[in-house]
Amino acid sequence: MTPEIAVTLFLITLAIILFATEKLPVDVISLLLVVALVMSGVLNIKDAVAGFGNEIIITIGGLFVLVGGLIKTGLVDLIGRRISKIAGTNEFFLTALIMAVAALASAFINNTTTAAMLLPVVIGLAARAKLPPSKLLMPMAFGTILGGSCTLIGTSTNLAVSGALQRYGYEPISMFELTPVGLVMVLAGILYMLVIGRKLLPAHKASGDSLTDDYSIRDYISELIVLPDSPLVGETLASANIRAEMDLNVLGIIRGDTKIAAPSNNERIQRRDILVVEGKIADILRVKEESGLEIKADFELNDVLLESDHIELFEVLINIDSTFVGRTLKMLDFRDRYGLTVLAINHHSKTIVEKMSDVHLRFGDVLLVQGPRKAVENLITDREVILLEDVSDSTARTDKRRWAIAAFALFLGLSFTKVTTGFEVPVAVCVLSGVFLMLATKTVRYSEIYSFIDFRLLVLIAGMMSFGVAMENTGTDRYLAAIIETTFGSFGVAAVLGGFFLLTVLLTQPMSNQAAALVVLPVAVKTALEFGADPRPFAIMVTLAASFSFITPLEPACVLVYTAGRYRFMDFVKVGFILTAVVFVAAMLLVPIFWPFS
Q1: Could you tell me the end-to-end alpha-carbon distance of the chain, in angstroms, rounded to an integer?
Q2: Number of structural domains, the chain?
């Protein structure tokens, strides 16, 4: 082993550990890896930044904008209403139709984006069918993952591997090269979920009639009567400073027959007002002696008490690209800046009510918030949160819907030019043509396009492609290929192919799909050459395996449904392990047929 190989192996091991622990964002890890490769002398600066100039980066960025146009025009809400109309309330047909629609959509839209768009739609369908959301959300997430294997643009992983293949001197993956195998995978996955998986799904309680019961906040909310001689009489909520002085949040005021939900800081406290407050029991119990307040003995909490004509309770899920991720409510100055009060935080079925202002928010957290619908809609528009309820497309640009469809059709049409005319238009140009049509028709506004793009993903892919150059230049790929050949070679090339599938699936649990694929790909290509086989079936197998992350809820599409469906970690292990075995068998049978070893 040369010093360069040792350094490269050390850096990739360190990267895998950092990806798994999630102590740093994935894009930061990728950039640190690039810097380390240059500082250690493994790569020169030109090779280290080569990945950032790859056309795949432009392609993926453009796809984000195209998808943004589909979202802005409300196409997903239209799909949700059609599903409900066709399937009705039958669980079997709902499961089949939801998975089919999710797979079809994710064949052309990133599966995480598809899952985010369909999440509130499926929750609404579950409510209308009187089913627990856990019965439909996991099939929806699995459907989006399966559908991503059908086309080149189904996932960014497919695009990343295609770009890497091109850099290695091989033909990139064509638009519909994966479709025959992908469709079989989708059908096998749907059949499994309908026959076996559906029976393994938990029936976790849906959000019922009372969100306050769902979040178990009854013990943290009480009613306090303002006594006539209280020093708070005549004070505004701001000057009384109840939040700072007593560690209590005032959620509402009952004044005679009038109810004021989420009162403003300028609201003055009057004699005999009843303050609806949230806080720890100890803080609530000591208010009488300190502030002339008395606990109302016959208090009964319900959602109506915290709502009014303009104030409602909402469940919102922190989006994957939200600026809230990694920050606390205190850091965000959440209540004053956004006009919403957070009553509880739910992370992976654990409800947090105390000391919420110090909790660092994470992707997939669900917040129970109180406030006006307009304030929530603003957060949805800014892609900070996803509202966990079925919503209409009243704010969508429905008049631009035909242009969004036309732009996507233009992109797909240009992708077929090699088949129809013999002249190949680069995928990046196809995507940008659709983007320009959206901009020209104002389906997407220029000021919005950069907000649609997940730059963290682009940096991750570019950085990991540069790492692929390092593995090739230092001979690390040949070194690892020799180890695999020695270990598995006696079992034949098919066994080695299966080994790469399992290795990639294993790495996708702690790592992002794209990173796992780009780490394994150079080793798989080199191993194929060592066996005298065509590298393409190995590259395709790694691509498929990187997408099929069903066993744990760490795949972004699964993270989105984890808390919303009240799932437990083992729910995914139980249902996803068998599904992984199903797609493994299908891949082992089909890949060598469509992409022969020689």
Answers
A1: 31
A2: 2
